[in-house]
Amino acid sequence: MRRFRVGYLSHLPHQAFLDTAAQCAALEVVRIPLDQPEGAVLAALREVDGYYCMASRDELPRPFHVTPALLAELPRLLMVGSTGAGYDTVDPAACTAAGVLLVNQAGGNAEGVAEHAVGMMLALLKRMPEAQAAMRAGQAQSREALMGRELRGRTVGLVGIGHVGTRVAEIVRLAFGCPVLACDPYLDADAIAARGARKVEMDELLAGSDVVSLHLPLAPESRGMMSAASFARMRRGAIFVTTARGHIHDEPALAEALASGHIAAAGLDVWAQEPPPPTHPLLQMGNVIVTQHTAGVTQESRANITRIAALAFADAAEGRLPPRIINPDVVPRFAERWAAAFGRALAG
Length: 348
Fold this sequence. Notes:
Elements lengths: L3 E6 L6 H6 L5 E6 L5 H8 L4 E4 L14 H6 L5 E4 L9 H7 L2 E3 L6 H16 L2 H9 L19 E4 L3 H14 L3 E4 L5 H6 L3 E2 L2 H7 L2 E4 L13 H6 L4 E5 L8 H10 L2 E6 L19 E3 L8 H19 L13 H12 L6
Parallel strand pairs: 1-2, 1-3, 3-4, 4-5, 6-7, 6-9, 7-8, 9-10, 10-11, 11-12
Helix pairs in contact: 5-7
Protein name: D-3-phosphoglycerate dehydrogenase
Organism: Belnapia rosea
Family: Belongs to the D-isomer specific 2-hydroxyacid dehydrogenase family.
């Protein structure tokens, strides 16, 4: 019986992927080195049924992003799984057109990302980055000059309240007594209330929050969402945090809002270019915490997302539809292509 072959490029986020995949006899995993000619990589990808694709735009070489051009080269491909909750390196519409199923690992790193976001909120309100920079530079200041604020009781606005946003809402509400506002067009007021927040529109969230934190995917409708006008609508002295994706917030506009004092501080884990160049204006600001898209890079989160991914490929290998399908419209075509490849129908 032919096994379902999954290929990954260069390296895996965690050993748990291989450990979990090894438990499925119908699954075969192959490593495709990147230190070889592009043609050799493509030749290896042509022999796989599943592509375990890096989710970080700037880590994966552009020729191996899942685009219409790449899919045209891979007629055997049945399924793509991203290595995280995001899938910036994959074109979902192109996958659907090609009959290729796309899954992500949404929720697998929710705890790591949520803790990172709340940690940034606390550090920014207490002005830890400014105090650290002053001390390291030998520029001692009076403690009053670095007076901070407490998170307790402050209004936290969440743009997006999926897996990560829900956990952030839980932490700030239960640990700090924070009222939580949420803007999410895909959920009604009752669903958002069940997740610990009050549903509002974007303008109300920006104007009414002491902390604004982004927890939504990069998509055509979210690209550039946090513009100069958005930052201007935020409450003066508010904190901005994002562990979502680069390109959702306008980096130059944020730098201007911080320089003017309208926004008090920012915590940034995601960037338009990752990592950003050392000369990036936001890296020069003492009231900004910067991390290199590491919010979900914990031992626990990496083990969890890779286990989830391996289980999704195992489902496909054994003739079942996996969870977390990004492009559900493709399912009938995927089922036909799977049946043609493996000589039997998918399980009902």
